[in-house]
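ok so i was messing around last nite and threw this chain in just to see what happens. nothing serious, just curious
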Amino acid sequence: MSQDQFPTQLPAPCIIDTGVIIHKLDMRRILTDLHHVRYLHIQDDRLHSEGEGYVLDVFADDRRATVVANHALYLNVYSFDYLELQQSPECECYFDLVQENRRLRLIPLSNPLQERGTENLNDADLEAVVDQVLSAKWDLNIDDDSDYSF
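result:
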């Protein structure tokens, strides 16, 4: 029998609405789509704190902390062992970031389908775009000037 008849590699996982995600890149991709959330900090099956805020940054760095403060969430996927996607009895999706006996539950309060059509550039994005355009125009002017020098 040839090797081609038996695949040696399993296909990548396909998770729909519920499941466990362990790959840090997949965790980051999912969390990046979250914006306005309700969060619950659960430790040893007891609710320690809860609140509402905005996911401002999702990153992967083994030397930086996850920080939840002042209605802002800065999520480091290396702070957690895995991400568990679950659904409430009302079929609403929520996300549990799990590290041993601690969970940071994120319940989306915004809908990416509705946000996609109404996205606007924020001040930082607009400033970055203007900087790029001005820089490109400046470079173009320099190139034009150098064509005429002898």
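not much to say yet. The first strand starts at residue 19 and ends at 21.
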